[in-house]
Automatic annotation (TrEMBL):
Signal peptide (UniProt feature, chain positions): none
The protein's name in its UniProt record: RNA helicase
Domain Helicase ATP-binding, chain residue ranges per copy: 25-192
Catalytic activity as recorded in UniProt: ATP + H2O = ADP + phosphate + H(+)
Enzyme class: hydrolase
Portion of the parent chain present: 278 to 1008 of 1185
Helicase C-terminal domain ranges (all copies): 277-451
Family, similarity comment: Belongs to the DExH box helicase family.
Molecular function terms from GO: ATP binding; helicase activity; hydrolase activity; RNA binding; RNA helicase activity
Nucleotide-binding recorded as keyword: yes
GO cellular component, one term: nucleus
Transmembrane spans: none
Origin species: Helianthus annuus
Entry's EC annotation: 3.6.4.13
Keywords assigned: ATP-binding, Helicase, Hydrolase, Nucleotide-binding, RNA-binding
Length: 731
């Protein structure tokens, strides 16, 4: 065992971070804030927290030190703490532990605690000064997540009150200076990296060297349109970056390439992720490439799952004796996540389909190949229309470089970018920080519940201040739904919403569902809105899939349809035929299972904030008042409202911000040309060429009147008494 320990020590000493150990510790002892920057893999995450821990132990402060290291994601908090415990030859939960939402592994002697930024923020709610904490390490600050940016501002204001507290910021090499200037010129320690050369192919090189031919019909985009590069498409509304991509393509010169490559490039569809090409490349590597794992960067859960299904049907890629096919995204369970770190047998190739969470924070060993689709699903936010959008968009140069860098870790690597070099050249240098491109509702609630003073005042002291229109929109929204009062103070509802780790609208549904005693279906609905759409719609058999969903259609509501589908699955699952049920009804078994576990998670959060009592474990499961559920959905989704007008056998739908809108073809309401209600409330709309409502529930005038807007939870009881009589009458 000690030789194992010796080996581990040798490994640790070989990491570039180890050579900077003294410089790092020295700087931390002299400065309250230190920034450490280095290439992925140099040992920041696994070594720096250990340096601090060991130095505290050596200075006889081992029993009193308390080091908190934040990670942007649960998966990294868990996997990093586990890795460090292994490096130290300890069990997790002794010196080193972790705490993420609803899960944790820590003991009373835990000195080094890994947690998500959200967990530290919630701790600050009850412990403003971080009493007893000696060091806060914030990892991956370059990602500029909203929690991380928020935490930076809170920490900056806390530091003068806690002069002995140390703050260490760790960042990839991309933007360390901005942190240094925010913290009054704090020192930056650069750790040099080890990288092997990476042979890089852009789309034109891939086409030229493989002879793969792109045609209009092997590239079909999400909305089922076959791509043709023609003049009309340039009239479509396009985002900034998309149009710069178009421009780049127009002026690129490919005359030195073969005719076939040139023709292919003309057909290239920038709006689709080309599954066929990915499959072809994977197969090519498996058959002809040197040994080593392959990491494929996709945009999100949905295309990862679809690609996985496609590959599983492939004769080589789907053969478990030759390929270990894994996925890596933010919403996987911890046991699933662990699989990606495991070693594979000789002769088996590991293929990991990942979102951008594999870009900077996770080390997957033995990677030699990277395939990069060039996109990430990004929350963006249109402050003018007050519309959040979650659409795949082009990544930044920095991200593309990070992705490429994942391949040259253990030996010389190869990277395939599925877009032409001229498109890469048109990428933005950096991605905008999240705080500048998402709605600020949750953030504003947290500022209020942390008593940080006026919302706009606090945000003006942030690392980068969001647009004042975005701040104003968020405050207006929170007032509208009753989370803030006229003076911007937190209401009782607002207090609950601040404690719930989800969007305020989903939080409000749970709160109202708990108060109005119809939590069971609401748990399913909120969980269903959080996971990938459980109703599958494979392109080739779209009609069949839609017909399958229509069986669950109920009360002109996608949300009620989901409740039916889930309850049916639950019954089938108990008879152990859950899978068959999903298969028959075009439902995703993964989503159903995810809903099941999210429901349990939500229940324990609601218990922890005492919205439901501890004993409540089963609710009156299969019976609920449909109209009450409708009312609760309305209370959460308001002001996402669209008016329904029937005119000469056609249906006209309008929202205040967008004017005319359409229903997504998957919505149960899209099948009905007569919706006997004047309103639809919806959770999500997407902008493509027109605005589509993805899901909707029909509501009556009185439901909208009574439940849209700000019901004060303080008088919910009175409200309920009053409503008691109204229910039957109105709805
Ligand atoms: P950084 O934070 O600078 O990107 P890390 O500290 O995460 O680097 O990783 C340093 C090195 O430790 C990696 O290059 C890898 O070789 C090794 N390593 C990290 N995590 C694991 C793990 N879970 N399993 C095996 N090796 C790991
Ligand atoms: Mg790291």
């Amino acid at each position: 065992k000690s030789s194992e320990g010796q080996k581990m020590l040798e490994f640790r000493r070989s990491l570039p971070a180890y050579k900077e150990k003294d410089a790092i510790l020295n700087s931390i002892s002299k400065n309250q804030v230190v920034i450490i920057s280095g290439e992925t893999g140099c040992g920041k995450t696994t070594q720096v927290p250990q340096f601090i821990l060991e130095s505290e132990i050596n200075s006889m402060r081992g029993a009193t030190c308390s080091i908190i290291c934040t990670q942007p994601r649960r998966i990294s908090a868990m996997s990093v703490s586990e890795r460090i415990a292994i490096e130290r030859g300890e069990k997790l939960g002794e010196n080193v532990g972790y705490k993420v939402r609803l899960e944790g592994m820590k003991g009373k002697n835990t000195r080094l605690l890994f947690c998500t930024s959200g967990v530290l923020l919630r701790r600050l709610l009850v412990d403003r000064d971080l009493k007893g904490v000696t060091h806060v390490i914030m990892d991956e600050v370059h990602e500029r997540g909203i929690d991380e940016d928020f935490l930076l501002t809170v920490m900056k204001e806390l530091l003068p009150c806690r002069p002995e507290l140390r703050l260490v910021l760790m960042s990839a090499t991309i933007n360390a200076e901005i942190f240094s200037s925010y913290f009054n010129g704090a020192p930056v320690i650069q750790i040099p990296g080890i990288t092997h050369p990476v042979r890089t192919y852009f789309l034109e090189n891939i086409l030229e060297s493989t002879g793969y031919r792109l045609t209009a019909d092997n590239q079909i985009d999400d909305y089922g349109q076959v791509w043709k590069l023609n003049k009309q498409t340039s009239n479509k509304r396009k985002s900034h970056i998309a149009s710069s991509v178009e421009e780049a393509l127009g002026s690129a010169d490919y005359s030195e390439y073969s005719q076939q490559t040139q023709d292919s490039l003309l057909c290239w569809n920038p709006n689709c992720i080309n599954f066929n090409l990915i499959e072809y490349l994977l197969c090519n590597i498996c058959e002809n490439g040197k040994p080593g794992g392959i990491l494929v960067f996709m945009t999100g859960w949905d295309d990862i799952i679809s690609l996985k299904e496609k590959l599983q049907a492939h004769s080589v890629l789907g053969d478990p004796n030759r390929v270990l096919l894994l996925t890596c995204h933010g919403s996987m369970s911890s046991s699933e996540q662990r699989l990606i770190f495991e070693k594979v047998d000789d002769g088996v190739r590991k293929i990991v389909l990942a979102t951008n969470i594999a870009e900077t924070s996770i080390t997957i060993d033995d990677l030699v190949f990277v395939i990069d689709c060039g996109k990430a699903k990004e929350a963006s936010y249109d402050a003018l229309n007050n519309t959040p959008c979650l659409l795949p968009s082009w990544i930044s140069k920095v991200s593309a470089k990070q992705r490429r860098g994942r391949s040259g870790r253990v030996q010389p690597g190869e990277c395939y970018h599925l877009y032409p070099q001229c498109v890469y050249d048109s990428f933005a240098d950096f991605q905008l920080p999240k705080i500048l491109r998402t709605p600020l509702q949750s953030l504003c609630l947290q500022i209020k519940s942390l008593n940080l003073g006026s919302i706009s005042g606090f945000l003006s002291r942030a690392l980068q201040s969001p647009d004042s229109l975005a701040v104003q929109n968020a405050v207006e929204y929170l007032k509208l739904i009753g989370a803030l009062d006229e003076k911007e103070n937190l209401t009782i509802l607002g207090g609950y919403l601040a404690m719930l780790p989800m969007e305020p609208k989903h939080g409000k549904m749970l709160v109202m569902g708990a108060f109005l005693n119809c939590l069971d279906p609401i748990l399913t609905i909120v969980a269903g809105l959080t996971v990938r759409d459980p109703f599958l719609a494979p392109l080739e058999i779209k009609e069949l899939a839609q017909a399958a969903k229509a069986q669950f259609s109920h009360g002109f509501s996608d949300h009620l349809a989901l409740v039916r589908a889930y309850n049916g699955w639950k019954v089938a699952e108990r008879k152990r035929i859950g899978h068959k049920y999903c298969w028959k009804n075009f439902l995703s078994p993964q989503s159903m299972k995810a809903i099941d576990s999210l429901r349990r998670e939500f229940q324990s959060v609601l218990k922890s904030i005492r919205l439901i009592d501890n004993k409540a474990s089963s609710y009156n499961t299969y019976s609920y008042d449909e109209n009450l559920v409708r009312a609760v959905i309305c209370s959460g989704l308001y002001p996402g409202v669209c008016s329904v007008v029937h005119k000469d056998n056609s249906l006209s739908l309008k929202t205040m911000e967008d004017g005319q809108v359409s229903l997504h073809s998957k919505s149960v309401n899209a099948r009905d040309f007569k919706i006997p209600y004047p309103w639809l409330v919806f959770n999500k709309k997407v902008k493509v060429n027109s605005v589509y409502l993805q899901d909707s529930t029909a509501v009556s005038d009185s439901t909208l009147l009574l439940f849209g807007g700000s019901i004060s939870i303080g008088d919910v009881e009175g409200h309920m008494k009053m409503l008691g009589g109204y229910f039957e009458f109105f709805m």
